[in-house]
Amino acid sequence: MHLYTTIYLSLNMVNIIKIICHIICIIFLTQTKFFSYSTNHQLAFNIYHLSKSNSQNHQIQSQQIFIKGLDNRIFRNKIISLLNINKKSTFILSSKDLQLWIRILKRSGFFHSIRTKYNFSQGHQKIFIYLTPNPTLKEIRITNLHQKLISKSYIKKVFKYHLGLPLNFYQLEKQMALVRRWYIQRGYLKARIHLNYNIKTDNRIEINIDEYKIDKIHLIISQNSINFLQQVNLNYWLQTVLHTNLHKPLNLSELESCLQELQKQNIIQHSYYEINEHNYRELFIYLQPLPKRSTYIFSKQKVITRHFLESLEALFNYSFFMPILDKDFSIFIISKIHKYYTYIVNCIHFNNAIYYKMSQYDFMFYWSFLKSLSLSDISHHNVWYIKNAILILNNNFGLRYVIRHLDKYNSSICINLLLATVGPLADCKYHIPYIHLVRYLTSSIVIHFSKSINIYKQYTNDIRMNCNYNTLIYPKNSLIEQHKIRMQIQHCLSKRINIYNNVVINNFICKSLLFKGSIRFQKLFNYTISSNFYRSFIGNHIYNFHSFTQYKLGFTVPFSKKHPQLKNQDQYNMEIISLISTTNINYKLSMVMYKIQHYLQKQINIHNRVFTFSCRLISLIGHQKYLPLSERSIIIGPDVIRGYIKDCEDFPLLSQNYKLEYAINRTKGRAIYLFIDYLANRHEYEDMNAIADLLNHHINTSLKISYGIGLQIITPIKQIPPLHVEYGYNIAHGQCLHLRVHQEH
């Protein structure tokens, strides 16, 4: 009896385990779907309306999905990836998801027909998707690809993923758009792409790239005074410069840029072009050259000032013969003046030994000197000094004469004569804009001679104490007579890399107005300032001759092949400038100065945001005291750093200038952008305390940072560069509004 009970319990346990296994299998089957693939093709096109099965979704216990027509392993994997199919998923595919699958398959463009079939029986659902793909693409032919501008490697990269897959015209149109974009970005705006498909040879397509070659070019020059020989030479020269040869692709962007360059070089006055496609492609270029000879006579008046209100105040005082009020000097200030000049006695600077730096207290005495001398006959110039200000009324009468030779090279001679108040000016320039002797190499030559007399605005205020203990003080507005001979040779390689070499020979004669006295400043410590000392100062002039030769070698390389003729392109520029003084006979090689400049500009796209980054590094190799007088200063304006007033500083040993712009809104005619600028200059100054203990130097760093907002406006006149209106705020809690134009680097 006990054995029977044991067997009975064992059988019940087995039955219970079987029942539990059946329940688990039922639960598992109700949440499972099966995928299978078949290579059977269906020719009919019929789409099942899935809305009829929406009410049955809750009754589905199991599901099978059959996708037929995927006979290509590569294509099958692509469809699985396209539909994002997970074969290990345990979720039932709803009618909404199935409808999304069908929509994705139709939009893919790979199939000629798509047919769906639905079957439901005893809680089990079967879905059949019958696909009829397009013919498999086995060959892509590009007509005369070896004669096209586009590279073979780029074509392979664009179309290689279409081979072995069903023919997809939608995707092919996208790839052909990339080929069109390649031509448009390089200026070939008329290029066209044609796709040829033959049903009989349905496994192959042919792509014809029409690069828009010109059959005939008409160069029409609207000037009757040109003879036949000049017409022939000019036609040859212009066709070479404009790069518009017969039976070659027409680059409209390059043609427009060349026409603008001809106007910029003052070769032509107006130009435009037309294209006629009636019977064959004809290009008409209309040019109006400038006259062979032209003469201009002009007269103008210039007023140059920095602090206009101070200038008006001084003008008012001198107009009514009102003396400038004297200053009261304390014993403490006079002792500082005495201590200052004891350090610089017998100290000589290179190339300008007669000059010494002045203390700020010297100008306190200068007002008194000026009061008694400006109205006397001893002063040779009716000018006055205002700290950091210049006021000049300059009546100029000028003559300009230009001679142009319309020949193969179209050279020109320009002569300028100016009879200014401060002195005569002469300027002569001979220019050959284009010399095209070797393929892919264009050269230009400029020979320039000039003689000018002007006001040297950035002059340092110095004094000299000679052996007779005479003190020489002169104002800031000294006259500079300059003789300059300049020769520039520029080469353009393959219309991209620009290499230039300049040789400039400069001769300076600095004419300064001084006030000479017979006393030394240390005597002021024991005397009180009175009118008796004013009469001891008389006006005089000194001449400081200085000459140097400048060699400049530079090159510019654009980063991108897209529109290499456009402004503001991504580029790298490097310049090496050598300055060799010819004033001193015993000039040593160690006294040669080198200025090295690196300029980098790059446009960066980050998540559809356009950032423009530029960097300029300038380094000086050599001692600053060997710099020529005219090269010892640098202008710091809005083109260097925005948010600061334009100023002049000593040339730095090292200058680091970084700019970052972010375009907020860009349209065809304007752009709004945010900017941040950084400028750090390192200077080398002579420590007066250390000069007495032999030479010693220390480094001073000048840091400027600003940020703000700007607006760029493009005028409809092509000759006017883009205008920039910028408002900046700097770290010195200052602000400034700038209006400037784009300057090429």
From TrEMBL:
Main location: membrane
CC terms in the record's Gene Ontology section: outer membrane
Family annotation (Gene3D superfamilies): membrane protein fhac (3.10.20.310)
Compartment annotation: Membrane
POTRA domain span: 135-212
Lineage of producing organism: Eukaryota, Rhodophyta, Florideophyceae, Nemaliophycidae, Nemaliales
Protein name: POTRA domain-containing protein
Gene name of the encoded protein: ORF_4
Membrane-spanning intervals of the chain: 7-29
Keywords assigned: Chloroplast, Membrane, Plastid, Transmembrane, Transmembrane helix
Keyword Manganese on entry: no
Origin: domain of life: Eukaryota
